[in-house]
Predict the structure.
Amino acid sequence: MQLPPGLVALVRLLPRILFAPATVYVSLQVYKALVGESPPQWLGIPVYLLALPATFAANVFYTRIRDRRQAACRGAVMPPSINYRWPGALDKLSALVKNFTSGYLGKYHTF
């Protein structure tokens, strides 16, 4: 009997999802061991909440840097891309969603 594909995908993604909170937990425990007291209670909640988005943003930046370096090593030129302000081009994604809801998919909005 084979496992369902959703369960297999979940098992593959679980380490990537749990990496950021586990890193925060270990960091807070190391802080407690080095300083000798627990970090402030209010610090834990925002750190845990921001761990996954920060990991996502770091992954986007790392991928861009890695691709540029690999292209430079091979003497290649990166293809042109749209300039964006937010990590992961979320500002462009919001423009695409706005265009989709207004009915004009080909029109580009600038914010």
About this structure: The longest helix spans residues 41-73. The two ends are 52 Å apart (CA to CA). The chain has a mean pLDDT of 86. The helical segments are 5-35, 41-73, 90-102.
